[in-house]
Design brief:
The chain has 330 residues and is an alpha/beta fold. The relative contact order is 0.13. The protein starts with a strand and ends in a 17-residue tail after the last helix. Strand 6, helix 5 and strand 7 form a beta-alpha-beta unit. Helix content is 37%, strand content 13%. The longest helix is centred in the last third of the chain and has 19 residues.
Length: 330
Amino acid sequence: MVQIMGKEVGPTGFGLMGFTWRANPCSKEQAFAAMREAVQQGNVFWNGGEFYGTPQYNSMTLLDEYFQKYPEDADKVVLSIKGGSNLTTHRPDGSPEGTRRSIDNCLRQLNGKKKMDIFEFARRDQEADMKLTFDTVQKEYIDTGKVGGISLSEVRAETIHEAVKHAKIVACEVELSLFATDVLHNGVAAACKQYGIPLVAYSPIGRGFLTGQIKKYEDIPADSILKRMPRFQPGGNFENNIKLVHQVDEFAKKKGCTPAQLAISWVRALNGRPDMPTIIPIPGATTAERVKENAQVVELSDAEMDAIDKILDGFKPIGRRYPDAVPIET
């Protein structure tokens, strides 16, 4: 079984961003039904963010209300929350003061309904002393029982090698999907394997791109975050990148599953390779039906994995994963 911090969490986790970080969030009733389904499916590694929404409505405020309604689920869920950013400038802030502000704010909004099992710095603050940052978390929050452990997020391999010298790193969250395989080749997955750090794969269905629901640029909803991402811009990028979607769609039809199930199962199947760390995909979903779909395990044979490798060998995505202003691989 897949474990985080010694707790079994199931082969697939659950990303919470889509509930609160969008122009028109779904209703709380719909969100609660999806979250309840995730627990019932065994998808109990949950991932949220301090900045996923507004100060009034974000991952923590939603979780506070959910666990007030379903207190019996609190001990079943392993919760990881990203923070460590200045909420005004949106820049990473790993200073002791910024670290305290972020963690204290998250704990305040969780309102005692659920322990923050893991705190993640969403990006590495290049100007902060990493040892001082981690010492602040360890001595003031982990040693006092307020937080369970430290995770990294969107980092390069060198950061992992440095971080393990200063703290016990319990997870490392990075983008990994058929559409973004960088971490398999840039030393990040290898570093996680070296230190026994579970790799948490965010956007395993390419921010929804690999669901097969988008066939042409006009299919992207007007309020979608994809409209701001370089890889989804028309005029070359979108036209090139949609080719992978078509290939995934065809493969899924032959396999008898949905494109999203194929994409998630490919990420899960990487666990079976000897050079890979434990990998946990954390697809997001805002309906119980989609949560159930994403939770279904589709077994992929070695021959099928080889066939997917050949597809990926012949595909090169065009465009940066994020806009230029957003730091990546920190």
